[in-house]
Amino acid sequence: MLQPGALIHQPHLTHLAHDRFDVGQVPMHQQLLAWRERVGHVIDVLPAKWQLEQPFLAAIDRYRLGEWTLTDCYSDPLLLSRSLARISTDNKRDYVFQVFINGGMSLGPSKAHNNRAPYSAGILLLDLNQPLRMQRSACRVLSLFAPRACVDSLFPDAESLHGRVLDSRQTEAGILIEHLQALAHELPAVPPHEALMALEYSAQSLLGAFTKQAKLSGNARAAARSLMFSRVRRYIKHNLYSDELSPERVLLDLRLPRATVYRLFEHEGGLAAYILRCRLREAAEQLFKCPQTPVLDIAYSLGFGSASDFTRAFRRVHEMAPRDFRLSALAPRC
């Protein structure tokens, strides 16, 4: 693992930029809309009609240093979404470690294979290059936005950790929560170079805890599991358009033990579910990148046997029909 300070070369750091926003500064009937506008550059707020008619409490402190950002945020309950249509039209690709000081969240249909109980508290790892739908209770949460290149240099398969949660009751998670809370308090008084090292060290420590939870780091056996995990993911990526791609074909071609591979993809809902989700993600990208290609051609090329099978699977994961997704992704954003 790289040493703190060695991840991103940023020789011209001058100061830690800070800004604060509190919806208490705007009239009551505009508070939730003002919050939606404030955080909308990263994620979409999906308010219920009744929420627009009620007072809404939220405030955020944001600290920026080079490509790194740390936010300290409180808000009333919210439904948040980052859809593939949204991802296809912006350039936000950081990894985000969300540390819940109080309150919690539950992940929705966009991460349907995650079966954690509603409003679980702890530390959540998100990949902004993947969709998510999250219901948050009233909570205070610290969010560390780590540059994608930095995280990928530490663990090339970091995208596979999207949606994982460290339970706050676990000793290591509790220590990390205390560390991030202290960092948020001390960061404004720290010189820029030391602040950068502290942010990098925090990201490394958090990532290490997640890879350990996934049993992809920590000893020689874990290293072997990590290599196996990478091999399977690469094989699937390179064979998405093959009619023969299936869990059985993966095991046969790579000559890997079934039980071990299935355990590696347990968090993904199983190997078959992972293959399906990869194909649906590729389909979504093709719907946006190739607007003249018929939807059915995309479906057939990715192994779907009929339009109804494709539409049903696509709607289940992306919460809209393929044609609606294409229209949404291509529509100009305000």
Automatic annotation (TrEMBL):
Residues 230-328 form the HTH araC/xylS-type domain. It comes from the Bacteria. Keywords: Activator, DNA-binding, Transcription, Transcription regulation. SMART domains: HTH_ARAC. SUPFAM superfamilies: Homeodomain-like. It holds the Pfam family HTH_18. It is found in: Cytoplasm. InterPro entries: AraC-bd_2, AraC_XylS_family_regulators, Homeodomain-like_sf, HTH_AraC, HTH_AraC-typ_CS, Tscrpt_reg_AraC-type_HTH. GO terms for molecular function: DNA binding. The keyword Cell cycle does not apply. Regulatory protein of the TOL plasmid xyl operons. XylS activates the xylXYZLTEGFJQKIH operon required for the degradation of toluene, m-xylene and p-xylene. This is AraC-type DNA-binding protein. It comes from Pseudomonas cuatrocienegasensis.
